[in-house]
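Dear colleague,

Following up on yesterday's call, I've attached the two folding results inline so they're easy to grep. Please treat them as preliminary; we haven't cross-checked anything against experimental data yet. The first protein's sequence and structure tokens come first.
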Amino acid sequence: MKASRWRMKLFTGNANPCLAKEIAEYLGISIGNANVSRFSDGEISVAIDESVRGVDVFVVQPSCSPGNENLMELLIMIDAFRRASASRINAVIPYYGYARQDRKSRARDPITAKLVANLIVEAGANRIVAVDLHATQIQGFFDIPVDHLPGVPTLAEYFKGKGLDGEAVVLSPDVGGVTRARDLAAKLGAPLAIVDKRRPEPNISEVMHVIGDVSGKSVIVVDDIIDTAGTVCQAAEVMMQKGAKEVYAACTHPVFSGPAIERLSRAPIKEIVVTNTIPLENEKHLPNIKVLSIAPLIGEAILRIHEDLSVSKLFEP
């Protein structure tokens, strides 16, 4: 399938231009001419240097760190496209920041994931393309269509290529991630295990029980995000204590904040498999980190959206 190139244009902010370039190469088009810079006082300057009138615009901009900067870039770019009379503005957000603030867990908490959704819609976006939202209900925070792309198929293909299908146990590091882990386990034909833990405060977790047999097995610990890496490293240590042969860690979004790299470098993890929804700085490229490209998945979704075809067909067996 080839895009009708003169009717579709792809733009990028500064959050992940390398991913945008890969998507453009998949689509067979060039990245649109836009200059996203800063004024001398630090305010964001956006200049769209080509016509987008009547065009189906896709703007690639994850709201990864620095999240507030990248989010503002996205909002201002959307506003610029709207005022330039683009026919449709599709915000491609490979990593949706603030997604973990999706509900009130105590009195007077904000629901920031909903606030961000409101801002994006108000700026002028007509459609959202996101990868592995932390909570699937975030789709309902938007009053516009949301195409939610799972990262599991990309991870599953990699592990199949390593011959781990049917030879591994897929571990969910908490009860909330069971659906994702079950999906990966089904694709690999592998059994499922679950860690039952409690989290006394943010970014601190305690392992309570392991449900499932991991003895002598290759264990794949899968999550949507690795942030400070406390959960995945703790899970890996417990798996080795339970007699696992080896442990792999897999996630879609390598946030890797705070002590993450130090923890991962010391953890008994054979390989850390992530995607490029978030760019990794050189100092975060540990020898055992494998980065998979999510560009083909996003590129195919963009083609289908542009041609008004089903996106869900991408994930049917």
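Below is the second protein, in the same order (sequence, then structure):
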Amino acid sequence: MNDSAAAPSPELMATPLVWSGADGRILGANPAFCRWLGVSVRRLLGQPLASLESQGEMLADRLATPSTADTVRLPRLALALPGEAPRFADGWLSGFHGDGWLLEAHPVDEFQTADPAQVLPGAFSAALKGLAHELRNPLAGLKGAAQLLARRAAGRDASEMELIELIGSEIERLNTLLEQLLSPAPPRPHAPLNVHAALERVLRVVENESGWSVRLLRDYDPSIPEFPGDTDRLTQALLNLVRNAIQAGATSVTLRTRVEHGQRIAEQPHPLVLRLEVADDGRGVPEELAEHLFLPLVSGRAEGTGLGLALAQQVAREHRGTLSYRSRPGHTVFTVLLPLPLTEEENTEVGDA
């Protein structure tokens, strides 16, 4: 081997590479890394290298140790800028120029971005239809009982009538979902949707479900406008996220809404975006489920069906959005990003920019 031969420049290598200084902030990334992550190098410069890890803390833990020339393998890293869908890679981290870090990413199959409708299509479809058939009769019985209770409570306690109406509306929503499973129809046209009305409906359902003792907190941005969507589908997705949090042992769940400007969703820029977060203090996502979490029939509970997160992700996509998460024990946040329409005034400002 010729000792004078220089190692190829990272900029010219086909393997995705990103490197930082001793302070852990990104100094550069080669074109292969930028193409794979779907971002420009300008967006990466100055960002903490650890902030690219969107799920788990393997990279952060390793960066907290002194720099070393030894190469360390970090399997199944989920990398993304905040708010972006994660990309998965087997990472190799090593010391760089004596006082920095070099991360080499070898992309792997991105299970989390797979369309659930294309995963196990035959078995999944058959299981759903069988489940729908089994649920029809109990729901018919519940509907009849709710109607009987409504007649008996007519003119009496207003709070009792409110709960009975809630039971009836939830039964109707479940019947609609079952009909969609048994006889798939084209998606309904989107109509003006008030996200806070959907969140309040979710909270009412959860507050009246027995057996749970949890604080439900609101952190709303009241300026969020209505936007086109399917209220029933979005309500179901959010209800799944809140129930998952409670079933993971949360004692506190926060529903948070914010408007963000100039965000990207699935690599597409949007001038106005709704960030909707469901944050909890539960056990967090088990490490062994992280890479398959959004696949149907995957659950961390023996009694779980593994359908809730797959449905929630699908609903986000139906609204041209994304669903992602970050998790550690005691702090898990599921984030839905949805594009918002601009007002006429905002459209004019964007056009003049």
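For the second protein, one point worth flagging: The two ends are 57 Å apart (CA to CA).

Best wishes,
A.L.
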